[in-house]
Write a structure and sequence with these properties.
171 residues; two-stranded antiparallel sheet; alpha+beta; 8-stranded antiparallel beta barrel; 35% strand
Length: 171
């Protein structure tokens, strides 16, 4: 029985030493915990705790080019390259350097008979001033469309494909 009491007193002495050391440096533990909490929260949701500059809004409106076009708003975009079309179904954002990489869907069999097959796609490029370079890459095939050059507020020159035209333009 005496042996257990001795071990208990030795353990109590070690505990007191630990408490004394902790009292001398109380902010190190709190600061470390706070930093670890922030890093862990950023790991769980990096969009909320980005350390870089915030993304730029994508210029909404009509973008037109030779046999290509895009209509964008603050929540989505509709894209044409040749006789194909695609959609981005979320907010469009530019990185601080003007580049973008967004996911969406694209239909490469829209003309002459639209088969309705939408492929997963990546829409990548760069916006500088009023000029956009756009490339569409289907992620389930080896098909890549572009790059095409689009100009802000320019009407698309869509050529022979009748898809997505106003009725007056079909004549």
């Amino acid at each position: 029985m005496r042996r257990n009491v001795l071990n208990l007193s030795t353990s109590a002495s070690a505990f007191e030493d630990c408490v004394t050391r902790t009292r001398r440096q109380p902010m190190i533990g709190k600061a470390t915990f706070a930093l670890a909490s922030i890093v862990f929260a950023a790991y769980l949701n990096p969009d909320c705790y980005s350390l870089g500059p915030p993304p730029k809004p994508f210029p909404a409106g009509t973008w037109g080019g030779e046999n290509a076009g895009m209509i964008a708003d603050d929540t989505s975009a509709h894209i044409h390259i040749g006789c194909t079309y695609g959609n981005i179904h979320h907010r469009l954002e530019l990185r601080p350097d003007g580049t973008f990489d967004m996911v969406g869907e694209h239909n490469i069999t829209a003309h002459p008979v639209d088969l309705g097959v939408m492929h997963p796609a990546r829409f990548t490029g760069r916006v500088t001033s009023l000029r956009m370079t756009l490339t569409v890459t289907l992620t389930d095939t080896t098909v890549t469309l572009g790059p095409v050059v689009l100009i802000y507020n320019k009407e698309p020159q869509m050529g022979p494909c009748p898809i997505c035209r106003r009725p007056a333009m079909r004549r």
